[in-house]
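Can't paste images in this forum, so I'm doing it all in text. The chain is below; anyone willing to post the predicted structure tokens underneath?
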Amino acid sequence: MTPSRKQSDCADKTKPAEAASRRIDERIRGLGDWRGETLARLRALILAANPAMTEDVKWIKPTNPLGVPVWSHAGIVCTGEVYAKVVKLTFAKGASLPDPARLFNASLEGGTRRAIDIREGEKVDARAFKALVKAAVAHNAGTAKPTKPRASQAKPAARAAKPAKLLSGGNPQIAKGEGDAPVQAYIAAMPGWKREVGRRLDALIVRSVPKAQKAVKWNSPFYGIEGQGWFLSFHVFTRYIKVAFFRGASLQPPPPVASKDPEARYYHLHEGDALDEAQLAKWVKQAARLPGFLAP
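Text version of the structure:
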């Protein structure tokens, strides 16, 4: 019997979610060690905390063909990354969540994300973890943006640009967006001496990689190559600007500051530091040729 068009449409709508769940199943089975068991246990806690949670898989690339599991409800709640010695659960808005059990032990410097690194033999407090997931869902629901009126309906006063809010460490809070405009808004809001350094960084990146694409994500400018992912971002802290090379460990020579992520390296710029544009340009060009972060 040939299915009706309505039946086919309904089936098509369920396929992406089912395919994502199957891909996560495959990812867990493929690990075949303590990391798979840990990821499976955390996944079960996430779904138990919110049965309406949506599962997805993002950032599939040749070096990670099964991608990264993502759990969402009114926005991304958390992601599950697997490394050689760590299973990492990153909460997209973790900096805004209560964590009385102090589960967060990684990505503590930024103003938005927080992560939980679990190593072999370590256990996560199930009750506290589920409470954290529920808090993330509630936060997403509470900050969901209402439908905006059309431009023709907007009042002139509503169109007036508001100064960007500065978050912890003086980092500008800029709405997520693609293209050059949000990046320039971020740079314009960088405080004090950091603004000029931000302009110089942006110009150097564009000179070095003219086809680089730009976006603002997690209150940081990102630079990447279409179809390949993001290779660099920078972020304001109180005393310095952190330039992050997501595959920095593969650069020659590697940028000087290590990360908890073995693949990433950082370059810190303090007030009065001489900007080594020649070395930065070499790093940028090398980074743009490597598979990037959050690759589609």
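The longest helix spans residues 5-31. Confidence is low (pLDDT under 50) at residues 1-14, 156-160.
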